[in-house]
Amino acid sequence: MFQTLEYRQCLLKQSLLFFLEYIAHTSTCQSLCLIAAFINSKMPSTLQPDTLSYKSTVFDFAFHPTENIIATALITGHINCVKYIPGAGNNESLWNVRPSKKSCRGLAFNHDGTGLFTVSKDGSIGALDVNTGNVLIKKPEAHDHPINTVKLLTEYILATGDDSGTIKLWDVRTGSEAMQYSEHDDFISDFDFDSTSKTLVASSGQGTISIYDIRKPNMLDMSANQDDELLSICIVKDRRKVVVGSQEGVLNIYSWGEWGDCTDRFLGHPNSIDTICKIDEDTVATGSSDGIIRIIDILPNKFQGIVGEHEDFPIECIRLSSDKTYLASSSHDDTVRFWDVRYLTSDMDEDDDEEENENEESKSSDKRDGDNDDEAGPNGDMDVDSDDSDAPKKKSNNRRPKRQPPAKNNPGFFDDL
Fold first, then answer.
1. Which of 197, 108, 199 minimizes the C-alpha distance to 160?
2. Distance in angstroms (rounded) separating the CA atoms of residues 404 and 381
3. What CATH code is carried by the domain that includes residue 96?
4. Nearest to 285 by CA among 262, 270, 300, 269
5. C-alpha to C-alpha distance for 298 and 353, rounded to whole angstroms
6. Would residue 263 count as lying in a domain?
7. Which of 150, 229, 273, 400 has the most neighbouring CB atoms within 10 Å?
8. d(C-alpha 372, C-alpha 182), whole Å
9. Is the preceding peptide bond at 300 cis, omega within 30 degrees of 0?
10. Residues contacting residue 68 through CB under 8 Å, at least 6 positions apart
11. Bridge pairing between strands 176-181 and 167-171
12. Residue 174 burial by CB count (10 A; 0-12/13-18/19+): exposed, middle or buried?
């Protein structure tokens, strides 16, 4: 897919980084880890956009669902929107606004990328026009306490969690509160969501994770207390496992449906695991307070190497771009850095393309056969236009059919989106 000389050179350098970090991890030789980080910091950035630098701490950022656009939220309340382009000096600033004087703690694009949801320390929720940065709507005092995290669950449902442990679900069509859960007594640190079962999982500072069916008003289950702050959460292994990062640097692994206690633990991070990003169903990237971004295989649990580092500054957030080309990371060094991770995702994409091509060829072959024999066979079966054909079918994306929008005479909370 990417056969340029620069890309092959990048792959070679990243392989060297992985090798050095693997030796450092298995032999406890910290000097090799430092060498790997140094090499990575000196790598040319021809395959990745310039680092975004600010004068204050970046609390959160979000990738646009379809375009090469990234939005960043700062502790000052400013929100920046940037079009990122590979190569030195190519990034283009689109707009910079300050909808709140309090810090902006979280961002989430809506389903089609036309709007940007924001949450703030003052407990408010807002929505911005992505094209202009104009404030479309602001809902003050949506929470009684500062909001710490936000996630768009479906096209119409937004989840928010605050510092007191309260979780709220919002219908973005009307701006009304759909559900409220108050089982936690400490801050909500992170969310993840399974669209197939409509299940929301949340990690918290009190040391537990909670599980919710967003169609029901009551919590489904809560794990035992781990006596450790749980800071990040990620669903992997096709919804069979949930990986949770902790303050002590342990990855706790839960089996789906067995929420009482974790079924496995992965040690090795020297500091807290503040953020987790899924690369694929078997692999995650972790951001730690030691400033290093690591790649971890899940079951079998295996440390694979590093993607990059922010020197000694704690990593606040890592995200994967929608096209899986870049992994971005923000840190207390007031920057957002881009890391080209096509070497991690290209094999997976090629496998998917091959499978899709095979399915298309099989369906075309069956259709040609059907055109030559459009009469019922000996058993009365028809080979043409049958949903029960023996031809291999594409994997279902399990998407829920879209619901009808509300009537026009009922003005929506985010109608302008």
1. 108
2. 38
3. 2.130.10.10
4. 269
5. 24
6. yes
7. 273
8. 63
9. yes
10. 83, 84, 85, 321
11. antiparallel
12. middle
Q: What is the mean pLDDT of residues 347-374?
A: 53
* Phi, psi values for residue 27, rounded to 5°: -110, 0
- What separation in angstroms does the CA of 159 have from each of 21, 39, 182, 190, 292? 37, 40, 13, 11, 29
Q: Is 399 helix (H, G, I), strand (E, B) or coil?
A: coil
Number of domains making up the chain: 1
Q: Is residue 413 part of a domain?
A: no
Q: Which long-range contacts (CB under 8 A, 24 or more apart) does 385-394 make?
A: 390/366, 391/362, 391/363, 391/365, 391/366, 392/358, 392/359, 392/362, 392/363, 393/359, 394/356, 394/359
Q: Which domain holds residue 226?
A: 5-346
Residue 72 domain-assigned?
yes
Q: Which residue type is seen at 279?
A: I
Q: What is the pLDDT of residues 173-223, one digit of tens each?
A: 999 999 999 999 999 999 999 999 999 999 999 999 999 999 999 999 999
Q: How many other C-beta atoms are found inside a 10 Å radius of the C-beta of residue 90?
A: 11
In the β-sheet with 199-204, what is the strand arrangement from edge to edge?
A: 188-194, 199-204, 209-213, 219-222
Q: For the segment 74-114, what is each residue's pLDDT rounded down to a tens digit?
A: 999 999 999 999 999 999 999 999 999 999 999 999 999 99
